[in-house]
Amino acid sequence: MNMSKKRVTREDVAKLAGVSTATVSYVLNKSIKVKPSTQEKVLSAVKELDYRPDPIARSMVTKQTMQLSIVLNNIANPIYSDMILGFEKQALEKGYFVNICTGQSNIDEYFDDFVSRRIDGVFIEALPEKYHIEKVYKLVDAGIKVIMFGHGGVDLRKVSSVENDYIYTLEKAVEHLWGLGHREIAYLSGLSEDQGYDLRVQGYKKAMERLTASTSHELCLCSPGVTNTDIADGRRMAHSLLESGKPFSAVITTNDLMAIGAMQQFQESGFSVPDDVSVLGIDGASFGEIVTPRLTTMKSDYYQIGAKAFELLFNSIKEDTKGFYQNHPHLVVRGSTAKKRER
User: Fold this and answer.
1) Which of 20, 126, 156, 218 can bridge 73 by disulfide, Cβ–Cβ 3.0-4.6 Å?
2) Do domains 10-53 and 166-300 have the same CATH topology?
3) pLDDT at position 95, please?
4) How many CA atoms lie within 13 A of 143 on its CB side?
5) How confident is residue 210, by pLDDT bands cut at 50, 70 and 90?
6) What is the largest CA-CA distance in the chain?
7) Regarding beta strands 185-192 and 145-149, do their DSSP bridges make them parallel or antiparallel, or are they unpaired?
8) How far is CA 159 from CA 67, 136, 150, 156, 331, in A?
9) What is the pLDDT, as a whole number, of residue 3?
């Protein structure tokens, strides 16, 4: 006995609604405005029959697959779950299916695969050193729209971009610690200085030069190679700072994950946070509120950033535009920073 259910077609919807198949297409694709009463008949028939448009057939007509991809740098970092949710909610409301790629594979191969799968658009949030920018531009040449997060060196004539204003962020972070009496403030970058895309370094140097009237940056330590800017990298960079023998009383890190790792390393090495060393992170990840001490951070609304990324990407797909959005993180003071203790 054949128990398979017959697939409902557009013709079935048209017959039940008493309209043409073309009218059904107009209503579902929102391509041509129809009378409200006709639209109501079509949508009622769609609901009654539980009609699901064939995405492959639809893509052949519209030349769009209604699929988007997000390429993440480190899915273990909880800020990206907020970013995904903000992006995905907006995408689903517009009828898109969202693929999430973790960045653990060869990202260049992802890009090649996107072309063969005819993805409509890509949101890239991955360390620039993990892929070749030429591959990104090949996506554009293939008609795939691209929006990027956190890559300051992209050609904005080709792709859209959302980013945190990291120069502003580091200036505010340094000013907070300076106001607490700290003068020996270190910045631990989880990114290679050779690449030149960690704008936090520029912000740190700019602030320190303004406040100290010195161009010496002995307390700016950058990673010598490829990293994931995670807890282990924070521990490693904090250990390097301790091994250097350079005096410091406060530390800023690339993100909150590294800040947690740095605090762990300092505490295991006999230093109290914040009595001996203040630690300040960047991002505002939720776990910063449950560590001991609670983490002072420069917080961003990553849900909103994700939503904005989709908005710009959607506009690029529909109107062939290029967009740019810059977010300004704000300071959240908690227990990991305090006034410098006199010794």
Assistant:
1) 126
2) no
3) 86
4) 10
5) very high
6) 86
7) unpaired
8) 18, 9, 13, 5, 30
9) 43
Q: What is the mean pLDDT of residues 186-204?
A: 83
Q: What is the mean pLDDT of residues 295-320?
A: 96
Reading the block at residue 338, the tokens are 């305090």
Q: How many residues can be counted in the chain?
A: 343
Give the architecture-level CATH label for domain 166-300. Answer: 3-Layer(aba) Sandwich (3.40)
Q: Between these two residues, 45 and 180, which has the higher pLDDT value?
A: 180
Q: Could you tell me which residues are beta bridge partners of residue 160?
A: 147
Residue 53, both tokens: 């448009």
- The 8 Å CB, 24+ separation contacts for 91-99 are 91/310, 91/314, 94/314, 95/66, 96/66, 96/67, 96/68, 96/120, 97/55, 97/66, 97/67, 97/68, 98/67, 98/68, 98/69, 98/70, 99/67, 99/68, 99/69, 99/70
Q: In what order do the strands lie in the sheet with 220-223?
A: 220-223, 185-192, 250-253, 278-283, 296-299, 330-332
CATH architecture group of domain 10-53 = Orthogonal Bundle (1.10)
**Angle, helix 199-212 to helix 166-179, in steps of 10 degrees:** 40
In degrees and rounded to multiples of 5, residue 306 shows phi and psi of -60, -45
- In one-letter notation, the amino acid at residue 198 is D
Q: What top-level class would CATH report for the domain 67-164+302-328?
A: alpha beta
> Is the dihedral angle over the CA atoms 168, 174, 175, 177 positive or is it negative?
positive
Share of the chain above pLDDT 70, in %: 91
Is 31:25 a contact under the CB 8 Å cutoff? yes
The single-letter code of the amino acid at 209 is E
Supply the mean pLDDT for the chain.
88
Q: How far apart are CA 62 and CA 78, in angstroms?
A: 36
What is residue 5's three-state secondary structure? Answer: coil
Q: Kindly tell me the burial class for residue 134, based on how many C-beta atoms sit within 10 Å of its own C-beta (0-12, 13-18, 19 or more).
A: exposed
**What's the pLDDT score for residue 21?**
84
